[in-house]
């Protein structure tokens, strides 16, 4: 039998972790001295400790590990749990790959410009929301207020409520890209 300190050094697991595993019932010492409270472990318990460490390294919680170490656990439960962990790890890899991509993009910007970018576009996730929109051809920008009045009227009739500031996108024919043809100049719309 090995004292907890010796078992800890041999297994490369902290004494604190061994005490916690004992507290959770994951790995009980083979003997606890009734007078000193010293915990003693058998060398054969290394197999179970290595299983705990391996499962923990896969991202399983100690509660999940405790369930897996029970004798009555079904193969279906084990497979389901491992599939869930597999998917979680894949998602983490995707997130880290996206983070790496952003770092690489910044590296290119800073190397090209020789300084930090003046601005950065940040994409934020928000809850889905309903949008009310009106689209019309207007003679000029001054008529946009009429579109806002239309939307206000619709909201009033339907019992809706505006939860953000209204927004207008106006494309002037003066700023619209053009294409030349045999018959003259034609405005081009990007829709």
List keywords for this structure.
8% strand; three-stranded antiparallel β-sheet; 3 domains; Multidrug-efflux Transporter Regulator, Chain: A, Domain 2; mainly alpha; disordered C terminus
Summarize the topology.
Layout: E1 2-3, H1 4-11, H2 15-24, E2 31-32, E3 39-41, H3 46-57, H4 62-68, H5 75-113, H6 144-158, E4 178-181, E5 184-187
Antiparallel strand pairs: 1-3, 2-3, 4-5
Polypeptide structure, described:
The chain is mainly alpha-helical and 191 residues long. It has three domains: 2-68, Multidrug-efflux Transporter Regulator, Chain: A, Domain 2; 74-125; 141-187, no CATH class. 48% of the residues lie in helices and 8% in strands. The protein has six helices and five strands; from the N terminus they run E-H-H-E-E-H-H-H-H-E-E. It has helices at 4-11, 15-24, 46-57, 62-68, 75-113, 144-158; strands at residues 2-3, 31-32, 39-41, 178-181, 184-187. The strands form two sheets. A three-stranded antiparallel beta sheet has the order 1-3-2, covered by helices on one side. The chain is elongated. The protein starts with a strand and ends with a strand. Residues 177-191 have low confidence and may be disordered.
| Rough outline | elongated
Described by strand count, sense and barrel closure, the largest sheet is: 3 strands, antiparallel
Average pLDDT across residues? 85
User: Count the strands?
Assistant: 5
Instruction: Tell me the name of the CATH class of the largest domain.
Output: Mainly Alpha
Question: Which architecture of the largest domain per CATH?
Answer: Orthogonal Bundle
Task: State the separation between the terminal residues, measured CA to CA.
Answer: 78 Å
Low-pLDDT segments, ≥5 res: 177-191
What's the gyration radius in Å? Answer: 33 Å
Number of contiguous helices: 6
Task: Report the sheet-strand fraction.
Answer: 5-15%
| Helicity, as a percent range | 40-55%
Helical/strand content category: mainly alpha
Strand order of the largest sheet: 1-3-2
Number of domains: 3
SSE string: EHHEEHHHHEE
> Remind me, CATH topology of the largest domain?
Multidrug-efflux Transporter Regulator, Chain: A, Domain 2
């Amino acid at each position: 039998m090995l004292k907890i300190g010796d078992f800890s050094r041999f297994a490369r697991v902290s004494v604190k972790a061994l005490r916690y595993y004992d507290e959770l019932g994951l790995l009980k010492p083979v003997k606890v001295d009734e007078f000193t409270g010293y915990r003693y472990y058998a060398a054969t318990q290394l197999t179970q400790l290595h299983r705990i460490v391996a499962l923990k390294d896969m991202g399983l919680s100690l509660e999940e590990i405790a369930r897996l170490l029970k004798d009555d656990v079904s193969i279906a439960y084990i497979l389901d749990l491992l599939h869930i962990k597999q998917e979680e790890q894949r998602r983490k890899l995707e997130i880290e790959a996206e983070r790496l991509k952003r770092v690489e993009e910044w590296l290119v910007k800073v190397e090209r410009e020789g300084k930090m970018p003046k601005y950065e576009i940040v994409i934020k996730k928000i809850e889905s929301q309903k949008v009310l929109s009106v689209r019309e051809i207007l003679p000029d920008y001054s008529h946009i207020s009429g579109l806002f009045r239309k939307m206000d009227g619709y909201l009033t009739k339907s019992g809706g409520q505006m939860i953000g500031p209204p927004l207008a996108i106006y494309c002037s024919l003066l700023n619209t890209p053009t294409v030349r043809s045999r018959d003259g100049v034609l405005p081009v719309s990007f829709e």
